[in-house]
Fold Pentatricopeptide repeat-containing protein.
Amino acid sequence: MIRLGEDFPMTFEEYAKGITITGRVKNVDLVVDLLMECVGYGTKTSVYNALMRAYMYNGLAEKCQSLFWELKKEVSNSLGLSPNFSTYNSLIAGYVVAWTWEDMERIFHVMEESPMKPDIDTHLLMLRGYAHSRNLEKRERYTNLLKIA
């Protein structure tokens, strides 16, 4: 664990922030080093989410998706980790930025079938995706569904 002194260990949230910032400067090797160090002390979903965002930011959608499915499997093991709103929304946002609409919709449907139902941020991401894809029919239909709900 990186320490300022023996009395001040980093928290999981600090690791998550470090991973996010390091991903933004495109230092994926350091991102992985931070994750491995953090995992040695346990981990939280927020750390996985930060790594997923770093992967997506650096155009590594396949690694991000692999990490997502790994996190979904972790639900059944002793870590007690599971995807949360941020997990799904980060993945959907990454697919919007990558212009991979089918993947965006697939993850949205996975989220609908999970205990974690789409929130307002998820719906706004989907609308953004449909707007970027110039799929006005789906965007219009989706907007009407939101008005009804």
